Amino acid sequence: MSIEIKAPTFPESVADGTVATWHKQPGEACSADDLIVDIETDKVVLEVVAPQDGVIKEILKGEGDTVLSDEVIAVFEAGAAASAAAPTAEAASTEAGDSDKVGPAARKLIDENNLDANQIPGTGKNGGITKEDVLNFMKSGAPAAAAPAATKAAAPAPVAVNVAPGERVEKRVPMTRLRATIAKRLVEAQQTAAMLTTYNEVNMKPVMDLRKQYKELFEKTHNGTRLGFMSFFVKAVTEALKRFPAVNASIDGNDMVYHGYQDIGVAVSTDRGLMVPVLRDTDGMGLSDIEATIADFGKRGRDGKLGLNDMQGGTFTITNGGTFGSLMSTPILNPPQTAILGMHKIQDRPMAVNGEVVILPMMYLALSYDHRMIDGKEAVQFLVTVKSLLEDPARILLDV
User: Fold this and answer.
1) Which one is catalytic: 370, 371, 392, 399?
2) Pairing between β-strand 339-343 and β-strand 316-320 as defined by DSSP bridges
């Protein structure tokens, strides 16, 4: 029985998608729920799985092709046994013989970057070269093929060579849809918002001492969930947002939209780009709930399994450049939100305390905000509130 494999149903905010990677090739056996293809949209990578046991009979949309919501991308033969793959959009050119099967998306990358297909290990059916194989080959720093000579000489066996000193090598890699969308949104944020940034610093010793004291007990009590710093920041920000509603608002045309809830986005860095999954109703979440949800976001982000629903909405964003060693930065707004908090590296510094110099673990905080919506006074007071709550974390629990 033949079954049509369709692209996922995209939400209204997503016009179309791109076939990113075929994980199964025609004739290759699939079990029910096996991942067969990734569809990349402007916001997230969606997975399409096998509807039941069988094989891919025909691929209608190759890697790099644009697909619409619910468009048929392949034909699946339910219950069929694995067989040799027939030529399809992913089966390919035979420039180097039958053993060198290069898909159209892979061929395009090879041609654009002047690569030698013979040097690229193929992981597709019968050693076929996929787009992902080419991208991995380029990431490894492999050399480009030499420019073709006027007369074609006998090609020597392919060998691995190092780039000669002084050689100026360039690689051209097309932007993914996600990366292009991120770039577009960041540029729009700077062009449309009256963005300013205010800074402060926070003494992290009280939070660090509390975490050290209860870390093991917290992990045992909450089924292995680890107590990190982000949950303290989320709770401090949530309380500060309640006190300064304009920081929790958004701009919609000429309207200012005040949100009576706190949905906080937490920036997660992945190989595909920066993603911002959202913690919903953080006022009702405990520290363990926040830490467990963030850990799940991070794992699914790295595995490419964050869904559209995970990243839609959000009234405020927190980004932590400190995990990469950043001492200070200016975060960019995440439209239509009007503010974003940047965390940074914790660093011991000499501080004056009661007339004495004390070494304390300090962190710079940066709040970027849209001056069209938020006055400087509110922005500063909001950041001071976050600082005060973190330097006396008992106030977070006591709501004072």
Assistant:
1) 371
2) parallel
Q: For the chain, give the mean pLDDT.
A: 82
Q: Are 330 and 366 in contact (CB under 8 A)?
A: yes
CATH of region 2-78, choose from 2.60.40.10, 2.40.50.100, 3.30.365.10, 3.30.720.120: 2.40.50.100
The band of 391, judged by pLDDT with boundaries at 50, 70 and 90, is very high
Global pTM? Answer: 0.63
Active site residue 371: yes
pLDDT tens digits, one per residue of 203-259: 999 999 999 999 999 999 999 999 999 999 999 999 999 999 999 999 888 888 999
Any idea where the domains of the chain sit in the sequence? 2-78, 182-398
Of the pLDDT bands very low, low, confident and very high (cuts 50, 70, 90), residue 82 is low
Question: What's the distance, CA 238 to chain centroid?
Answer: 24
Euclidean distance between CA atoms 306 and 267, whole angstroms: 12
Catalytic residue status for 252: no
Q: Which fold has domain 182-398?
A: Chloramphenicol Acetyltransferase (3.30.559)
Report which of 206, 203, 228 is spatially closest to residue 392, judged by C-alpha positions.
206
CB neighbours (10 Å) of residue 371? 13
Give the DSSP per-residue string, 161-205.
Answer: -PPPTT-------PPPHHHHHHHHHHHHHHHHS-EEEEEEEEE-H
Q: Indicate which residue of 255, 375, 392, 399 is catalytic.
A: 375
